[in-house]
Amino acid sequence: MSLEGKVAVVTGAARGLGRAIALRLAQDGAAVSAWDLDAEGAAGTARMIRDRGQRAIACSGNCADAARIDEALARTHEHLGKVSILVNNAALSPFCRFEELTGEAWDALMTVNLKGPFLCCKATIPDMLEAGWGRIVNISSSSAQTGSAAQTHYAASKAGVIGFTKSLAQEYATRGITVNTVPPGFVDTEGLQESPVDVAGYAPFTPMKRPGRPENIAAAVAFLASHDADYITGHTLSVNGGRYCN
Questions:
Q1: Per-residue pLDDT for 246 more than 80?
Q2: Which of 154, 172, 202, 231 is catalytic?
Q3: Is 154 a catalytic residue?
Q4: Most buried of 1, 36, 58, 171 (most Cβ within 10 A)?
């Protein structure tokens, strides 16, 4: 699935799913702009890609800040070219019991998880329209499909991402841009290890009896970003080891 000549933006690319996705898209031939609030982590991802002989840069900033997005996009244009592929991966995923959830915490999470993809799409879609070709892959969550105790705000934001994806897909279906979503479930990342989830204890209760790997998500994203997926849009490609069957 060659992506030679394409430029991909991956948000939240400093570690975990974002880093795995960035590495896979680069492996498939895309030049990658790694965006993250963690400047050092994003630089590390870009360096890993360049060490493999592929093109990459890092851009630091908040994906929910329009001014910082414009700065990152300008830097991407300067060093790599116009954007062909956007992967909206950056997100917050805290645990908080509903009785303790404040309006401020709700708003802060929605700004990153839902407004962030909106702003990044607004910024990059003009490049795709100009080229008559584009791929947008939004990382949602199996929590949006099943619900998740103590993550009401997170699950709600990711359900919003799924609805956003389907609607955007219909709007751009005749203009060369596909828009799809991948909801991961129980994937062994730094974020999962840092969460209250007992990974080893929960694994036996899942269909595959083990967590997934970031590379599993990256492979799904790479397919949806490829030429082979040009008749797939508005789709929710669940990668969760059977945790949720759709």
A1: no
A2: 154
A3: yes
A4: 36
